[in-house]
Predict the 3D structure of the following.
Amino acid sequence: MKTIILAEDVAAIAKIVIHKLQNSGYKVKYFKNGEGVVEAVIEEKASLLITDIMMPIKDGMTILKEVKSNSVISDVPVIILTGNSQEESVVRGFKNGAADYIRKPFSTTELLLRVKKALNE
């Protein structure tokens, strides 16, 4: 079973994402802010990280940069799931190594398809 780390500060959104992913056969480890996310990607040997950008303690763009600059986990795909739809943010996400960028509001069916694509399934 593949493990997905989810960093999302809005509990209602996290609940929807976790439900969809678990019902699709993934193990999900959830963080309500950016604290401890990078360490969890390493410890859990995560297959994928899904992160919001605007979160307390550590924002998703910082997390993305830390993952991509760490040789142990740099190959873990990162999907940004955020309400920030400004072109500048999208471009920054991809330049920093994001596998995908999903804008809120989103379809859970589309999210699952993008997860499968990022995992080469």
